[in-house]
Structures are given as structure tokens and as C-alpha cells.
Specification:
Largest interface: A-B, 22 and 23 residues
Radius of gyration of chain A: 28 Å
Number of strands of chain B: 0
Oligomer: heterodimer
Largest sheet of chain B: none
Strand content of chain B: under 5%
Shape of chain B: elongated
Distance between the termini of chain A: 55 Å
Number of helices of chain A: 20
Strand content of chain A: 15-25%
Number of strands of chain A: 27
């Protein structure tokens, strides 16, 4: 499966270790065979549909229109076939131990990102446990970045002023260093302390030239990502890429360099002088050349790098436009059809990467087709009869079912379609820019600004076109201009469907979360107000960001009030100042929500908060949001119960409230409840308590105070990247029925609980 | 942003109404009440213009035939009914109406070719 081993490689002590041996299957053979059969059946149905369409339904009265729709459907088939090829075998990697004594350089590239943002990446890079040398490569040549490097103790490399790509300054740093491997990070990609320990082991195989890990960008509730905290589901377009496409390509030895969160072998880059800077997507270019040179690439699907930078629609667009242009440019430099050295699978995967940037054309055809039908009265289908409807419905069902099975429930049509629609303008722009030779900066910005409606001009135009077409169609039917009720009706439904998707795109782009400067994490942590006579009151956060939080407090606090907060994040509380910016309605029972803006006097507070977010919140959120879909979850639970594997759990009432926990030895700490059931409650605690021990729990809410003895029946360590931020999920059983009744009363929970 | 989009859309739709009326004012006028259309001095011109179109709904053709019959404009009536019969050849009512209109216009042979048995022409001949 690996490519040929270059004769020049093997600078490290050669061993019998083969990186391919770390690829392991994650599904039993029967299930893999089932998925492959579904893929082939889905493609066969699609091919049959295309044959029927081509033979019987092309409309000679509107041939150009009919052919445009048909070509768009053929494009969809190619796209699907290439997608299924990439995820034909989805494998995981076992992690070999890192060999000691590997000389490692770490490059962090930056352009114009906030220095506070870069600060956390540099701090995290310096804290990586494996010995290494850290350099900040600054294309922006900023004095404050140089000062930051001096403060934190890393090296600073200024890029050339006229450099337009990341590769240029990167290669300057490459020439100044000599580490056998180079870890690369963008300014907002914060690595975990064990990043190098988890990735260096593969380089014991002398054929490995690249190890790439996913770049987890947490941006909940945006066009790219939707989170259902209650159902523990996350949908993100990049989740499909991270969990399916990239592991699938890893099987074909076709993993690509994504520009960040990767480790490269110097020896593989030396013949080329570093990264390729001739194209604006030097990372893709470089990885294709490495593949052609015969180097093995590894994709390790572990969340070792996190980004919590919200990217608004303009920056997102710039980022994807760069990728689109880069992919087209690479086609000129490294043609996957003709490039020598690439395997068949690597060629197919490369073509698939490039083809994804052409999806705008079929999407545009599908957006414009209904208005065209409604305005002209001409259909792209020659015979709109029962046979066509039956074949079309079968085709759609086959697509939906095979897509659901192959993507393991991760794909959601109602999220995929708006995402692809949102890409249309930039994907139209990329070929034009490429053809006209207009180059843009090779690095996308990472700063959010005001919502720029111009980025959505095409979507607004499509909405206008669709609405006016619907009105025109309705007028035509009403006044008898158009006699084709069935054709106009179907086109109208199609147009309405497009209209809903376009409205989602436009409204998502203008939503508040898209404009925020920091991501708000769904974190519930106890809060004390040190300068407010609280009489034992405790608050709890509803969400938390580096810039502020939403604080639930038992009573309203005045707007503008300055507060001294103590956040119980992990074992060590964090003290900081804050200001009440706004007060919202009562959001949880009688608790009052307050928007708090943090005010840190020194960087230490910011650093500690960031540490808590990256080491505690992000791993916990990533672990919680693992369910693929509600439907699959329900089916799995039902099957488990039938088989007797899944035990019955009492219904849970989710409530995140601050709680005091006291032991008989006199220890006391604050925790947060996660949920309540008939027999007790579960709490997230910074201290571990052995099962069987009895603790006193005290809950004070606006509805009253509750105190009870409870026995610890379960203790589970929550994931944390750093032991200092280890938290525990404790299951507590309340033995006294009277205490439980009182608790239900306080929580206003139905007796049925 | 949404408000501006809605405002622009409203303007577009108003313009669209105007364009539609400009292009299909004959159709719009034919959709007025039956009495109004019967009394419309421009009916003949509008109906002829509408009949020149390839795609007309059955409802409009029925309206033209109906109003033309009421106004005694046999030529227009027959023209409309012929379009109906050509587009809906299996509709017996349309065929009967056309045959009657042709007979009243003195075009007995054409009427007979439609369906003599259905119309009882055999009996009349006898």
C-alpha cells in the first residue's frame, strides 16, 4: 500500500517498523462488506437513472436547458463515485511510541492574527513534552509578535515583505534549521502537550514523509457546524472529512498536507527546498509531490490540535477561495492524470479533491432550473409522466439511504446542501481568477469583522430570481398563460426547496455567532461572586469564552456592575474581574442570565482561562458530542435492549446547577450537577470520591435550599488533556425518599421523574 | 439586511406585475367577470391575440368560446372550440359544442365529420 521507499530516505536508524502495520480496521468484515455492497448498489441505481434520463427524457424542445441539467446530474454521479472510492475502506491508526532523541523543529506561521490568539498557540507549542525547538514564522513582520517571542522564549523569523504565500517565509525558517522533522501549526491551532509524542512514532518507518492530524475547529452554531448539546450530536461538514474522507484516503496512502497540524520529514522536503511556493496552496502541492516521490503519508485521527477562532462568512469565503484557486493551480503544476510516480488510488483521490471545487456548476444549474421553468414554461424533462416520477423517486431514495449508510449517519442533507450552496460564488470566482491570472494572498485572515453582505450577493440574487419566478409561475397559472399545471407545480416545489436552503445560507451568514470574536463553549462551571454578599449563593456559567461568559445567578445583578468572579474550572479556581453587560430573561427556572465581559489585569488570568478551555472544555466537548444521529442512536439502543446488551436507564432530567459537596473528613468543594433521576443525581466534580463513600450535597437555588446525604455509586474520569484539569463524573444515590421529593419540588420536576 | 432584501423583493414583484400585465394584458382582461368580458369592445382583438399563442389553458379557451357564443361571434367561437378539440380530442362535450357551432354556421359537413351518431345527425337526415 505504501509507495516506493525513496533510496535517499532513512536518515534515522532503520528498523523493521512499517507504518502500514498501524492501520487497523474499525468495523467487522460483515459490516464492511455490507457498506461496500450499499455503495455499489447506490452507484448502480444512479447509473441506471442516468441511462434512463439520457435515453428517454431529454427534451428536444429545450435541448440546451435539458442537457445542462443532465450534465449536472452526471457530475453528481462522478462526485459520488469518487467520494465512495475515498471512503471504501475507513481505517484507524494505532500509535507507535515516539523514538527518543529525534531532533524536532516546530514552525508556527502567522499573518495578521491577534497576538493574544497566537500567544496561546505558542504557549501550547512550548509546552509540548517531547524536546523540540519552536520558531514563529511571521509573514506580517510585526513588532508585537517579535516581542511575544521574546517574552515566551521562542525564536522569531520575519517573512519577506513582498511574500504572498505561507511557503516563502516558511522556507526561510526551513533553511535556518536542521531538525529531522518539522511540526507545522497555523497561528490559531493550539496543540496538545502530547502532540509530538503521538505523531513522531510513525517516523521510525523511514518511508514516512508526512503525518497529518485533523485540525479541530470548534465553531458551534455556524453554517459550518451545528451542535445539539442535549442529543450530544454535532454536525459539521469537516467532521465527514475528518472521520471518513481522510481516514479513507489514509488507507490509499493518499493523505494530504493541510498546511497545519502536521509533521514533515525534512529529508522529503530537501530536494524541493521546502514547501512549494509556486502556487497559493503550497501545502496541497507539496503533498502531491511527496506522494509522487514515493513517500508514505499517515493520517492520525486524534484531536491533538484545536482551534477556537470563529470565522465569519467573509474570512471563511477567503479561506475556501484560496483552496479552490490552489486546487486549480495545482492541476497545472502537478497534473494527477499524468504525473509520474502516483499510484492509481492517489490519482483518483487527487482528482476527487479537485472535482469538489467544481460542485458550484451543478448547484447553480439546479438553482436556476426552477426559475427557468417557471419563466419560460419549458421543462428539462421530455415526458413528465408516472414512469419518470417513479424512477426519480427511486433514485432519490437510493441516494439518501446509501449516503446515510456510507457516511455512518454523519451526513445531513439539510446541512450539506446549504453548505454547498454557500460555496457557489467563490467556486465561480476561483476559475475566473485562475484563468485571468489574478492572484490573491496565500494566507487567509483569521479576524472577524462586520458582516459584509456583499459576500452573499449571489445568494441574494438567486433568492430574488426564485421569488420572482414563483410569482410569475403563479400569475401564469392564475391567468391561463401557462397550461402545464403538473410541470409548473413541480418546478414551484423545487423552487421553494431552493428558497428555503438559500434563506438558511443567508440567515446563517448574518447570525450573531458568526460575528463573535471568540467561540462560546457550552460550559457549566460553578461561580462565586467574591464581593457580593451572597449568603451562600452560587452561580453557574451557561457558556464560556476567553472574553466572557453567560452567568446564571439566583437573582438579577445591575447592568454595568463590576464583579470579582471565582470560576471553579478544574482543581484550581480562577479569579478574575468582570462587568455585567446585559441581563437576559430567566433562562433556567428562576435563575437570571447575565452577559459578563471579563477584565484581566495581566496575561496570567487570560492564560489560565485559555488553558482551562483547551485542556478541559474542548476535550470534554469533543467526547460528549460523539453521537452520529438521533435516528441511529435510537435504533442502536432498541437493538441493544432486544439483545439484552443495553441496560435500562431511568429517565434523566438535565439541569446544570452549582452544588457544594462535603465529605465527612471536612473537605468541601464546588461541583456542577449534570442530571437528576428518580434515585439520585450525577455531578461533575474536580475531586474524585471513591465509590461507596457518603458525601453531603447542598444545593441552593432561587426555589429553596436542599441538602442531603448521598452515596457515591459511580466515578468516571472525564477526558482532559492535562491532569491539572482532570474532572470526574460522580453518580450519587440519594437514599432518603423525603430528600428526593424535596429535590423534585425545588427543581419543579414532574413526579413522573 | 433582511429588511432591505424584502424591500427590494417587493419592488421587484411590483415591477413584475406590471411586466406581466404589459405582456399578457389580453389574458388578464379575459379573466374578468363574464359580463364584463361580454361588454368589452376590445374582446375580438384580445381573443384573436390570445388564440395566436401556442400555450393557452383550457379555462381561457372555454372562456373565449363562451363569450364569443354570447356575443354571436361564430368565427371566434369555432376557432376556440377547434383548439379545445385538437388539444382534448377525447372530450365529448367539446366535440358536441364544436359540431353545434359548425352546424349553426352552416358547415354541416365539417360537423358531421366530428361524430354524427353522437349528435343525432343520422336521424335528422332520415
Amino acid at each position: 500500500m505504501s509507495g516506493k521507499v525513496p533510496s535517499s530516505c532513512g536518515s534515522q536508524p532503520s528498523s523493521q517498523f512499517d507504518a502500514d502495520g498501524t492501520l487497523v480496521t474499525i468495523e467487522p468484515p460483515a459490516r464492511r462488506a455490507y457498506r461496500k455492497a450499499v455503495a455499489l448498489a447506490g452507484l448502480a441505481v444512479y447509473a441506471g437513472y442516468l441511462a434512463y434520463r439520457g435515453l428517454y427524457t431529454l427534451n428536444p424542445d429545450a435541448l440546451a436547458f435539458s442537457l445542462a441539467v443532465y450534465v449536472a446530474e452526471v457530475h453528481g454521479f462522478l462526485f459520488l463515485a469518487l467520494f465512495y472510492f475515498q471512503i471504501w475502506e475507513v481505517r484507524q491508526r494505532t500509535v507507535p511510541p515516539a523514538p527518543p532523541g529525534f531532533p524536532v523543529d516546530v514552525f508556527i506561521t502567522t499573518l495578521d492574527e491577534d497576538v493574544d490568539l497566537l500567544r496561546q498557540t505558542v504557549r501550547a507549542a512550548l509546552r509540548m513534552r517531547y524536546p523540540h525547538r519552536t520558531l514563529v514564522v511571521d509573514t506580517g513582520r510585526r513588532a508585537e509578535v517579535s516581542a511575544l517571542c521574546d517574552e515566551l522564549g521562542c525564536e522569531y523569523v520575519a517573512g519577506s515583505a513582498d511574500e504572498q504565500t505561507k511557503a516563502g517565509p516558511w522556507n526561510d525558517a526551513f533553511g535556518r534549521t536542521s531538525g529531522a522533522v518539522i511540526a507545522v501549526f497555523d497561528a490559531e491551532h493550539v496543540p496538545r502537550a502530547d502532540f509530538l509524542d503521538r505523531t513522531l512514532g510513525y517516523f521510525a518507518d523511514p518511508a514516512v514523509g508526512l503525518v497529518q492530524v485533523p485540525q479541530r475547529r470548534l465553531h458551534p452554531d455556524s453554517l459550518r457546524e451545528r451542535v445539539d448539546w442535549r442529543q450530544r450530536c454535532i454536525y459539521a461538514q469537516h467532521e465527514v472529512i475528518r472521520n471518513l474522507v481522510m481516514p479513507g484516503r489514509d488507507y490509499w496512502n493518499a493523505s494530504t498536507l493541510c498546511g497545519s497540524a502536521a509533521v514533515l520529514r525534512r529529508e522529503a522536503l530537501v530536494p524541493h527546498g521546502g514547501l512549494f511556493s509556486g502556487t497559493i496552496a503550497g501545502d496541497l502541492h507539496t503533498s502531491l509531490v511527496l506522494q509522487a516521490d514515493g513517500w508514505t503519508s499517515v493520517y492520525l485521527n486524534e484531536l491533538l490540535v484545536t482551534s477556537s477562532v470563529p470565522i465569519d462568512v467573509s474570512n471563511d469565503r477567503a479561506d475556501r477561495l484560496r483552496h479552490a484557486e490552489g486546487s486549480l493551480a495545482i492541476f497545472r503544476h502537478v497534473n494527477p492524470f499524468t504525473r509520474r510516480g502516483l499510484t492509481f488510488a492517489q490519482r483518483v483521490c487527487s482528482i476527487a479533491s479537485m472535482l469538489q471545487w467544481t460542485t458550484c456548476f451543478p448547484k447553480l444549474v439546479f438553482c436556476l432550473a426552477p426559475p427557468l421553468v417557471l419563466f419560460s414554461g419549458r421543462l428539462p424533462i421530455a415526458h413528465l409522466d408516472r414512469t419518470f416520477v417513479a424512477v426519480f423517486v427511486a433514485h432519490l431514495l437510493s441516494l439518501a439511504v446509501s449516503g446515510k449508510v456510507l457516511t455512518r449517519g454523519r451526513s445531513l442533507l439539510w446541512m450539506d446542501e446549504p453548505f454547498y450552496l454557500s460555496n457557489i460564488p467563490l467556486l465561480l470566482e476561483a476559475p475566473v481568477r485562475f484563468a485571468s491570472g489574478t492572484r490573491r494572498s496565500g494566507i487567509a485572515g483569521k479576524r472577524n469583522g462586520d458582516y459584509d453582505g456583499r459576500a452573499m450577493w449571489l445568494h441574494h440574487a438567486l433568492i430574488g430570481c426564485t421569488v420572482t419566478a414563483l410569482v410569475w409561475g403563479a400569475l401564469g397559472l392564475a391567468f391561463g398563460v401557462n397550461a402545464d399545471l403538473a410541470g409548473t407545480g413541480l418546478a414551484g416545489l423545487w423552487a421553494l426547496h431552493n428558497l428555503v436552503l438559500l434563506a438558511i445560507v443567508v440567515s446563517s451568514a448574518g447570525r450573531t455567532p458568526e460575528q463573535r470574536q471568540a467561540v462560546r463553549f457550552h460550559v457549566t462551571t460553578p461561580v462565586e461572586l467574591l464581593d457580593v454578599p451572597a449568603n451562600g449563593w452560587l452561580g453557574v456559567t451557561a457558556d464560556l469564552a476567553e472574553t466572557g461568559c453567560t452567568l446564571l445567578w439566583p437573582r438579577g445583578l445591575p447592568i454595568g456592575a463590576r464583579l470579582k468572579l471565582r470560576l471553579h474550572l478544574g482543581a484550581q479556581p480562577l479569579d478574575c474581574d468582570g462587568e455585567v453587560v446585559s441581563v437576559s430573561a430567566r433562562v433556567q427556572g428562576d435563575w437570571v442570565g447575565h452577559a459578563i465581559r471579563f477584565r484581566f489585569d495581566c496575561k496570567t488570568g487570560v492564560d489560565r482561562l485559555a488553558d482551562a478551555l483547551y485542556n478541559l472544555t474542548v476535550p470534554e466537548a469533543s467526547t460528549r458530542l460523539t453521537e452520529t444521529s438521533r435516528l441511529i442512536r435510537a435504533a442502536r439502543t432498541a437493538l441493544g435492549r432486544i439483545a439484552g446488551v443495553t441496560r435500562f436507564r431511568a429517565p434523566r432530567y438535565e439541569a446544570h446547577l452549582p452544588i457544594r459537596v462535603q465529605t465527612r473528613g471536612g473537605n468541601e468543594w464546588l461541583a456542577t450537577t449534570r442530571d437528576f433521576s428518580r434515585g439520585g443525581l450525577s455531578v461533575i466534580s474536580p475531586s474524585a470520591v471513591d465509590p461507596g463513600r457518603v458525601v453531603r450535597v447542598i444545593l441552593r437555588s432561587p426555589e429553596g435550599e436542599w441538602s442531603s446525604l448521598a452515596t457515591v455509586v459511580r466515578r468516571t474520569a472525564l477526558p482532559a488533556a492535562d491532569e491539572h484539569f482532570r474532572m470526574w463524573l460522580l453518580g450519587l444515590r440519594v437514599d432518603l425518599e423525603t430528600d428526593l421529593v424535596r429535590l423534585r419540588h425545588i427543581l419543579s420536576v414532574e413526579p413522573a421523574l | 439586511m433582511t429588511r432591505r432584501l424584502l424591500m427590494v423583493l417587493s419592488v421587484f414583484i411590483l415591477v413584475e406585475f406590471a411586466v406581466f400585465y404589459w405582456r399578457h394584458h389580453d389574458m388578464v382582461r379575459l379573466s374578468l367577470s363574464r359580463e364584463t368580458v361580454i361588454g368589452d369592445p376590445g374582446f375580438s382583438r384580445e381573443a384573436a391575440s390570445v388564440l395566436a399563442n401556442d400555450h393557452i389553458s383550457r379555462r381561457v379557451l372555454d372562456r373565449i368560446a363562451d363569450v364569443a357564443e354570447a356575443r354571436g361571434e361564430q368565427s371566434l367561437q369555432i376557432q376556440a372550440l377547434e383548439r379545445i378539440v385538437s388539444e382534448f380530442p377525447q372530450d365529448p362535450v367539446a366535440r358536441i359544442r364544436l359540431a353545434q357551432a359548425l352546424r349553426e354556421a352552416g358547415r354541416i359537413e365539417e360537423a358531421e365529420r366530428l361524430d354524427p351518431s353522437e349528435l343525432g345527425f343520422e336521424k335528422e337526415k332520415g
